[in-house]
Amino acid sequence: MDFYGGPVHPTPPFNAPAARRLREALGMAPGHVAYGLAAQYGLRISAETVVAWERGIATPGERELTALAGVLWCAPGELLAAAATLREHRMTRDLTVDELARQLGMTGASYLRMEESGRWRGNEKQSAALCRALGLSAAQFLTATGRDEELAELLSSAVTTRWQAYVRPVAKVVPLDRALIQDVLEQLHTDYQALMVSTLSWSSTGQERSGSTGDAGRAFLARVVEQFWRTAGV
Question: pLDDT tens digits for 44-76?
Fold first, then answer.
């Protein structure tokens, strides 16, 4: 949907099997759904199109998805696969751009620019509000706001150099209590250094540090991030 003259977005990840299950549970045929879309929402959607949605051949747009949820007596989120982007999480919660922006204390246009770019620019207070509004875990927040790579680089540097210098930068990226981040970074650094001393290498770590390239470097970054979330317990 184009709220402010911006680009038209790709449709959300539609859960075709769920749409069919919900329709059948209500004892409705595809024609009944098409009639409901027209009568209740003014959408001229054929029964054949409804069947195509349920088979994954076609995908409803944002307006169609919202209307379909109304006809099937469910929340829009029940018709979506696992959300990954900010837009997908917002739609799962059945929030418009303006509704979410108000909860974050910003204008709809400002929020929409970030949603479109996939790069979150809100402050720590707004980040916490975003997590509350969309029900995001810390890991989901990082993925949805496009900060996975940034976190990986910070953690790589923290475990291989002086971890204390990275508490504040990590806290700006991850919506977690700063004391928890400090404890986790210290533990990661201790574990990493102990392993280095005992084995002199950590899966060819000499080639896997943050400045490395290729599969080995990416694997190292992935392991550090995975260990971070495990140690943080989130």
Answer: 999 999 999 999 899 998 889 989 999 999 888
